[in-house]
Write a structure and sequence with these properties.
The protein is α+β, with helices and mostly antiparallel strands and 142 residues long. The chain has one domain (18-136): Nuclear Transport Factor 2, Chain: A (Roll), CATH 3.10.450.50. The protein is 25% helix and 38% strand. The chain contains three helices and six strands, in the order ααββαββββ. The chain has helices spanning 18-34, 38-42, 67-80, and strands at residues 45-52, 63-65, 85-94, 97-107, 113-125, 128-136. It has a six-stranded mixed beta sheet with strand order 2-1-6-5-4-3.
Amino acid sequence: MPFITTDHSREDNTKMPEADLRIEILERILDALNKHNPRAVIRHFSADCILDSNRGPYPYGQRFNGIGAVEGAVRSLFDRVPDMKFNDATIFTTGDLGFIMAHATGTAMTGERVDTRTCDVYEFSGDKVIKVDSYWKSTGQY
């Protein structure tokens, strides 16, 4: 099963519950990631959003502030790993948080193979992502 979601169809034309809307947004983000479309990814982000990447010199990785910086970071991922895919995804929400857990695969421009489990934590304000905190399983030794 690729996703944990709820039925989005509404026959009575009432507003979709916030949790269902957020699931739909996360599904769109995942689809945009798999299509390597940074512009479609950030369409769902606030102007002052934050991305804490899975790598970097700080305990939170590297921080990207603002929609332009976040779009650049997403674009950079695809520049480094042009065939990156996020498969076998599970999506769920609780409160103002949403989660995409997936199996990321691809080959970096350096020739290094990417094959890892990921979990991105999305913080929402209404229907906009205000922060993403990205976690990837490390295959290195500690």
